[in-house]
Every structure is written in C-alpha cells, then in structure tokens.
C-alpha cells in the first residue's frame, strides 16, 4: 500500500486549520495518527512556509490560523477550469476505487479556492454534464495503480501476486513498461519474468504488488495502449479473420477501434487481421465501417454478413409497408 507521506500530513494539517476556527492539538494528532512531538514538527514546517499559526499552550491548548489569513486563490483560465472539471467527471468512470467520494472532495477543494466566476462554471460542469463511458471493473483499492505507475516511471521492478480469470494464483517479478485503460479495465503492460515475454495484467486481478530495488530498461517508444490493443485483437480464438479495407491508413485510423484487429498497409488498401469467437458480432462491426471492404477469410463470415444485410433490408421494407 502507498505510505502516508509526511508532506501529505502537513497539507492535511493546513486543510484542518482552514476548516476549523480552532482545533486542539490532541484532535489534530488523532486525525493524523501521530504523536504530539510529530504534530509540533508539522506546525513548525507550516510556519517556515509562511503560514501564520496561533498556538495556545497548555493541557487544553490548540491551534488556529491567524485571523484574516487566506491562501491566495488558484488562478485558472476558462479552458483550464473546463479541463479540470471534465477530467474530474471522467475520473468517476475510470475504474478507480472510491472514485466518487475522491472526486467530490477534490471538486470541493478546487471550488473553495477558485474565484466565484470560475467556481460557478466548474460546478455547472459537475452538475449538468454526463459522460457515456463503459462500466469499469474497479480494483479493491488504488494501491496497484499507484505502485505500478510509479514503478513504470522510475523503471523499478515489482513483484506481483496475480489471479487469473480462472482464479489460479501465481507470483512473478514484473518490469512495468506502462499502463493503459481500455473497455472498462486497467492493465499494466511489461516484461514478465515468469513467462520471459511481454504480458499484460488486469489491475482488478492483482492481489498484491510490492516495489523492488532492481532497475530495468524500457524499450524505446513503447506505447502500452498500442501493444494492448494488438494483443487483445490477436489472442487465438475460434475464427481467424482477414479483411481488406478499401481505404488508406490515415482515413482508417481516424475512426479506428484497435481491438478490431491489426492493420497492415498493402497495395490495394489496408489488410485487417483479427480473431473472433462469434462471427455474427464481427459481421456487425464490419457493417458499421464507413468505407468498403472485402472479406478474404473465413468464407463463413461472408455468409453471416449477407444474412445480416438481408435482415436489415427486411426491416427497412417493413417500415415502408407500415
């Protein structure tokens, strides 16, 4: 789990002093889970930062900010305030443990220090905007996301205890190259020392992760989301699929969902290679494409697509008859 850092506690002291006209030393120490000597050290650190604090000595003493002291407002322009508000709104849907209360708390803190005009705009986003994002699989807490992202940034190996979809538990050392979020799940992608190859691990299946001191070197220009999309699209399934997309790569990539397959430019278009368990689902995805295509394999997919086209045509004629 992520340690409760002294800097975080110091900022918590400041927040408590801002929200309470006066608070006892005993209550501050209790909330921070520290002893009196440590609390006094935090008070001194705030004073050294220029925060004026009144201290009342004695058994029933306490602390308060000097009357009239306020932190200067945070300065955001309209676009920055919009970005913060939409980002906080999106965080509710990104599979983070306890995201809703954390977002509410962060929004309240921002609004307290924003000028009134921007506060009203930020609140308008929070209260009126809704995002259509897939239901996420949230991990039990945010520890794995925090530890793995830090390890990826500092290039430090971790030790993972992991549960597969079948609930088989394994342990391994792992070099996290990066993290990605796709279709409601968080993934860590990197080199697995148990399998001696690149692997991806869903964070909601990580049982425990511990940072190690061993360093690693990440491949240059590694993109975890690109790798994840290709890995998911090429997992061996019941049907191997090849489709020629009759458009150029730039046109395709503007509207492309990577999980449909891997793209390869060829002389007469772009070749799509993929795997699927159910051909009906894949036929419906192809029917949504805004450009032409030619199914090369398997022939069964052509038959499924033709059947789907006949059903759509019949439905359109039924509407005309009505």
Radius of gyration: 27 Å
State the low-pLDDT regions, or none: none
Task: Give the overall shape.
Answer: elongated
Helical amount: 40-55%
State the order of secondary-structure elements, H for helix, E for strand: HEHHEEHHHHEEEEEHEHEEHEH
Provide the structure class: alpha+beta
Q: Characterize the biggest β-sheet.
A: 5 strands, antiparallel
Strand content: 15-25%
Average per-residue pLDDT, rounded, comes to: 85
How many alpha or pi helices? 11
The tally of strands reads 12
Distance between the termini: 63 Å
Description of the molecule:
Helices cover about 45% and strands about 25% of the residues. It is built from eleven helices and twelve strands. The strands form three sheets. It has a five-stranded antiparallel beta sheet. Strand 4 (about 155-165) and strand 5 (about 170-180) form a beta hairpin.
């Amino acid at each position: 789990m992520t340690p409760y850092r002294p800097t975080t506690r110091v900022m918590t002291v400041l927040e408590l002093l801002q929200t309470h006209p006066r608070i006892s030393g005993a209550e501050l120490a209790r909330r921070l889970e520290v002893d009196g000597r440590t609390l006094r050290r935090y008070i001194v650190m705030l004073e050294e930062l220029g925060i004026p604090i009144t201290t009342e000595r004695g058994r029933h003493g306490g602390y308060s900010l000097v009357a009239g002291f306020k932190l200067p407002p945070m300065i955001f322009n309209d676009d920055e305030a919009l970005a913060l508000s939409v980002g906080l709104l999106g965080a509710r849907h990104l599979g983070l443990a306890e995201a809703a209360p954390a977002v509410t708390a962060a929004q309240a803190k921002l609004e307290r220090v924003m000028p009134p005009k921007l506060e009203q705009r930020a609140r308008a986003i929070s209260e009126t905007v809704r995002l259509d994002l897939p239901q996420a699989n949230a991990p039990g807490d945010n520890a794995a996301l925090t530890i793995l992202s830090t390890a990826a940034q500092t290039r430090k190996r971790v030790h993972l205890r992991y549960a597969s979809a079948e609930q088989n538990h394994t342990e391994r050392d792992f070099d996290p190259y990066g993290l990605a979020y796709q279709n409601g799940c968080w993934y860590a992608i990197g080199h697995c020392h148990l399998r001696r190859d690149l692997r991806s691990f869903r964070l909601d299946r990580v049982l425990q992760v511990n940072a190690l001191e061993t360093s690693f070197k990440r491949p240059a220009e590694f993109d975890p989301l690109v790798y994840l999309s290709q890995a998911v699209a090429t997992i061996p399934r019941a049907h191997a699929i090849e489709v020629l997309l009759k458009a150029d790569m730039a046109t395709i990539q503007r509207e492309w969902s990577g999980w449909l397959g891997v793209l390869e430019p060829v002389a007469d278009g772009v070749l799509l290679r993929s795997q699927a368990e159910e051909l009906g689902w894949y036929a419906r995805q192809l029917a949504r494409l805004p450009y032409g295509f030619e199914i090369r394999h398997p022939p069964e997919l052509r038959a499924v697509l033709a059947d789907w086209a006949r059903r759509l045509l019949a439905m359109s004629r039924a509407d005309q008859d009505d």
